[in-house]
């Protein structure tokens, strides 16, 4: 359960970061309070990205990189859906098809990881058992 919560928080932070960066970028340059370059939303977006990276580094302690990255790809789906909801950005049919493919890939990778046993996992991806 902890793993699912960690991924949900990481993805939520990534979505928030992307939305905040977009909203900060939409502020006219003359109104950007921080050196005329950044809006407070931009800096808050950087904070959320950094927080998501810290959580992700914790996730990598217990999950292989290729599986973690595949599951983390759900952030792309979440950002598209959030941008449609919060920023009224359209989701054309081609993008919707891509979302379905991403979700399908995440499901396949997730179930393939559950099929692995601890006896055949190692950092190098080879069998940890010594040949007899």
Give me the secondary-structure topology:
Elements: H1 2-25, H2 40-59, H3 65-72, H4 74-87, H5 93-115
**In what range is the share of β-strand residues?**
under 5%
The SSE string, one letter per element, is HHHHH
Total strands: 0
Q: In percent, how helical is the residue content?
A: 55-70%
Distance between the termini: 38 Å
Low-confidence stretches: 119-132
Task: Please outline the major beta sheet.
Answer: none
* Rg over CA atoms: 19 Å
Helix/sheet category = mainly alpha
Morphology call: flat
Number of domains: 1
Counting DSSP H or I runs of 4 or more residues, the number of helices is 5
| Averaged pLDDT | 83
Structure characterization notes:
There is one protein chain. This protein has 132 residues and is mostly helical. It has one domain. The chain has 5 helices and no strands. Helix 1 packs antiparallel against helix 2 (40-59) and helix 1 (2-25) packs across helix 4. The chain is flat.
Précis, in short:
The chain has 132 residues and is mainly alpha-helical. Helix content is 67%, strand content 0%. It contains five helices and no strands.
Main features:
5 helices; mainly alpha; disordered C terminus
């Amino acid at each position: 359960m902890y793993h699912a919560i960690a991924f949900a928080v990481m993805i939520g932070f990534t979505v928030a970061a992307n939305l905040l960066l977009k909203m900060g970028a939409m502020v006219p340059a003359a109104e950007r309070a921080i050196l005329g370059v950044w809006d407070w939303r931009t800096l808050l977006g950087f904070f959320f990205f950094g927080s998501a990276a810290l959580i992700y580094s914790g996730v990598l302690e217990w999950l292989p990189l290729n599986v973690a990255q595949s599951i983390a790809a759900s952030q792309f789906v979440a950002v598209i859906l959030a941008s449609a909801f919060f920023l009224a950005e359209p989701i054309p049919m081609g993008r919707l098809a891509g979302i379905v493919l991403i979700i399908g890939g995440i499901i396949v990778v997730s179930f393939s990881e559950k099929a692995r046993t601890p006896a055949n996992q190692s950092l190098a991806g080879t069998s940890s058992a010594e040949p007899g």
